[in-house]
Design brief:
The complex is a heterotrimer of chains A (192), B (228) and C (216).
Chain A: H1 5-15, H2 26-31, H3 36-66, H4 73-95, H5 97-103, H6 114-125, H7 130-158, H8 170-184
Helix pairs in contact in A: 1-7, 3-4, 3-6, 3-7, 4-5, 4-6, 6-7, 7-8
Chain B: H1 13-57, E1 63-69, E2 75-77, E3 89-95, E4 101-111, E5 116-124, E6 129-137, H2 152-155, E7 160-161, E8 176-178, E9 188-190, H3 196-217, H4 221-225
Chain C: H1 5-22, H2 33-38, H3 43-66, H4 76-98, H5 100-106, H6 117-125, H7 132-162, E1 164-165, E2 168-169, H8 184-215
Antiparallel strand pairs in C: 1-2
Classes of the chains: A mainly alpha (192), B alpha+beta (228), C mainly alpha (216).
């Protein structure tokens, strides 16, 4: 019996959070999460790219399977993702130049975000149909954004705290991520 | 000294397309070469893995036949390419030394704690029961979820009753996992306390697969009885 | 530009060591985290992922370096990605042919090697500007450094979380494994602990250097 779209969404958002449980999208998570005002748009941009990538991957998979060209799957997915990111960049540059400048180098880096390719690969591996894939990518993107925003909020607060110098930087961020991950484990089983 | 300094800044389109075509060709050759080169080894590995799993759940089996059960109720051998048409369920018939049917094995999967839990369960048509199960792939928590493999009380749940319903369209009683200690019926599975999610996944996996597959086995037993 | 062969081999040694210590991808550059944390639930998984990544690194950097004069500037990133994806596909099939059990254990993260920032970073920053031998040596060093990082993570998590090392039980039946270490939070904690250790060592070294400079 197929999983319902709602349960897939909740699952990708909480119990199997892309960042905190599945270890996808860690580079931007560790790199962009120091300020809330950049973290949120980054999350939105990534979610959008994940959604587009999911749709394209679904269509591509149908095409490749029909022609028995499964071994081209990885290459075609990554090319589609690179193109989608290029598209998002062009759209942002035209309609919101401030946001484009704010995101800076991190926008093209969405191409190498494991979460985006991860969505495509996992939905193929789990044989999701169209609706399930959409729920999966939206849930995953929302989960990514949630983790990013949580981390950014905490890190902003921590800048005012007295953290020992030896622990500052990435070590502290990782410990924080571990605690967040531990907390999210409490969601296990939610969504059936 | 360096003529490159005087080259134009942008690459002319023709040269770009030519280079990209060359690179695409090189990559294509490498991929196809790797695929062809490893194909036989990969297929062999898959076959060995299936065999090992089936022999484990049907101890009397010495050889395996692969079949698919189609939605229209008929059963046929899997095609050479191994593709399973939509709505069809793949299953394995285990044959003993004499070539007689020792049991049926099929895969089921359900969502566990971390990812999907894929199991292979064995069905004995003579007693209409599910006799054993084995895990094909799982990522459950070591020491907690993976207890389903070794916990004696969990394993004592089997054989499970899997009689067909009167209308032969499904099971008479759905196989379901219940809280530890509350098992009263032979088709219930007592969960492992502290590993309920994984235990439930096992129950759901077996139930979902059995509901579809078992009604299609009965009418086709003659086809399966003898090793062909 | 030609160099005497003596310097060439010293340079190659330098290239090799860069990835292992000074610019270790896991502990210094903190890149390629996704596979580093996801598959390192055991030493053998970490080692296999490291070897697979090293293979892709060396081959991709080699090919990129060979073609560096041909690749158009405008589409270079896309080209690098396609080349990397090619070799990742090769590794994917090779692992399936060698051991299906290992393939199941590493899962989707084999294919996710494609988006490992280390590889793309090396291709862009180094392979596109150097000769094949130099590029591949550097890539090999990076790969070794990455593998060492993965091994460090995987072994610690396996010892604490399962009581075994490469499958060999260390502590006997009464050992209560610290299960969280092989779960996602454990990955974060162990890497954080390693980084903390390296940070402490670096600070101590820095302190000794300033003391020596002051006393001189």
């Amino acid at each position: 019996m197929p999983e319902s779209a709602a349960s897939i969404f909740i699952n990708a958002l909480l119990a199997n959070n892309f960042v905190l449980a599945m270890f996808l999208g860690l580079c931007p998570f560790l790199g962009v999460s120091n300020k809330l005002e950049t973290a949120f748009p980054m999350g939105v941009a990534t979610t959008f790219v994940m959604f587009v990538a999911s749709l394209c991957a679904f269509g591509l998979n149908l095409l490749l399977s029909a022609f028995h060209l499964e071994f081209l799957r990885l290459i075609s997915y990554i090319v589609i993702i690179a193109s989608a990111v290029q598209l998002v960049e062009m759209v942002l540059k035209k309609y919101s130049p401030t946001l484009f400048r704010a995101l800076g180098i991190y926008l093209p880096l969405i191409t190498t975000n494991c979460a985006v390719l991860g969505v495509a690969l996992f939905q193929t591996a789990r044989d999701y149909d169209f609706v399930q894939s959409v729920a999966f990518s939206l849930g995953g993107g929302a989960g990514f954004m949630l983790a990013l925003v949580l981390m950014a909020s905490v890190r902003e607060r921590l800048q005012l705290s007295d953290v020992p110098a030896v622990a500052q930087g990435t070590a502290l961020t990782l410990m924080l991520a571990g605690i967040l991950s531990l907390a999210f484990m409490g969601f296990a089983g939610l969504g059936g | 000294m360096n003529a490159e300094v005087m080259q134009p800044q942008t690459t002319p389109t023709v040269a770009m397309i030519r280079t990209l075509g060359l690179i695409a060709a090189i990559c294509g050759v490498i991929i196809v070469g790797a695929y062809q080169g490893t194909y036989n080894a990969v297929q062999e590995n898959k076959r060995i893995a299936v065999e090992r799993a089936v022999f484990k759940v049907i101890p009397a089996a010495r050889s395996i036949g692969e079949f698919i059960a189609l939605p229209d109720g008929s059963v046929e051998k899997t095609s050479a390419s191994g593709t399973v048409p939509a709505g069809a369920v793949k299953f394995y018939a285990g044959y003993d030394d004499a070539g007689g049917l020792a049991g049926i094995a099929a895969e089921g999967s359900a969502k566990g704690y971390a990812d999907s839990v894929r199991i292979l369960f064995a069905y004995d048509q003579a007693t209409s029961s599910i006799t054993a199960f084995g895990v094909v792939a799982m990522r459950e928590t070591p020491g907690i979820g993976d207890k389903i493999l070794v916990d004696k009380e969990f394993l004592a749940n089997f054989p499970l009753e899997a009689k067909l319903a009167a209308d032969l369209k499904g099971l008479a009683n759905a196989i379901v996992t219940v809280k530890q200690g509350t098992k009263t019926k032979p088709w219930e599975i007592d969960a492992i306390s502290g590993a309920t999610i994984t235990s439930r996944a096992v129950g759901k996996a077996i139930n979902d697969a059995a509901q579809i597959l078992l009604p299609r086995i009965g009418p086709n037993l003659d086809k399966l009885k003898e090793k062909s | 530009m030609s160099q005497p062969s003596g310097i060439m081999s010293a340079r190659n040694w330098d290239e090799l060591m860069e990835g292992i210590w000074r610019q270790n991808p896991v502990f210094v550059m903190v890149l390629g985290m996704c596979p580093a944390l996801a598959v390192t639930v055991s030493g053998i998984n970490g080692l296999s992922m490291g070897i697979a990544t090293t293979f892709v690194l060396v081959c991709s950097c080699g090919l990129v370096s060979l073609l560096r004069k041909l690749i158009p500037k405008e589409v270079r990133i896309a080209t690098y990605i396609v080349i990397i994806a090619t070799f990742v596909t090769v590794v994917d099939y090779v692992i399936q042919a060698v051991s299906l059990a290992l393939y199941d254990a590493l899962g989707a993260f084999i294919q996710l090697i494609v988006v490992n920032c280390v590889i793309l970073g090396r291709a862009e920053a180094h392979a596109s500007k150097n000769t094949p031998v130099v590029a591949m040596t550097n890539a090999f060093g990076m790969g070794i450094g990455f593998t060492i990082g993965l091994l460090a993570l995987g072994c610690v998590r396996e010892i604490l979380g399962a009581g075994t090392l490469f499958g060999v039980s260390l502590f006997g039946a009464n050992f209560q494994p610290w299960v969280v270490m092989v779960l996602p939070p454990g990955g974060f904690f162990v890497l954080g602990a390693w980084l903390l250790l390296f940070s402490a060592l670096a600070r101590r070294k820095q302190r000794k250097l300033t003391e020596a400079a002051q006393n001189a």
